[in-house]
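BUG: 3D viewer hangs when loading the predicted structure for this chain

Environment: internal workstation, default settings.
Expected: structure renders.
Actual: progress bar stalls at 90%.

Input used:
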Amino acid sequence: MTATNQLFIGLMLLLPLVFMACDDERVDPQTEELITNLTLTLAPAGAGAPIVLSFTDVDGEGGAEGVFSTTPLMANTTYAGSVTLLNTADGATADITRDIEADEESYQLFYQAMMGLNLTAGYEDADANNNPIGLLTTITTGEASTGTLKVTLRSQLTKNAAGVSDGDISNAGGDTDFEVVFEVEIQ
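Structure tokens produced before the viewer hung:
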């Protein structure tokens, strides 16, 4: 094989890599926004001070451990809940909640009571297609218990899949953008 043929074959093998690299640069990649803070504010029906469950991890995943703040919930109580998601990295504050509201058809929050926690969650907001978003929720507690509450933000999911509109994450698909698990006590 001549040197010219070797050079030609080498270039032909590199050509697909060059096209792939060029293709990647033309596509505007969807940038994932860092979420450093989640606050779930729960106002009890009737009267009483709101309860706040919060998670803060200013350096994002992989650095210092995040900080949780929780307060016990009252047994047999219905709470009106609202979620705020922020990015406070680098000293600036970006309201990710507004980004979700602006692209509401692409996002849904899921609330999963686990490990014996006597709690159910429902949706109080919907996108233009009448599918849930989850920034507004109703949390209903039962008898005293302890366990965990997992809050998951999914994007690019299939909202009309079986059970998804009822909060069943198993058929949702899509990407998990953020997930936090709170230790919760119901008194």
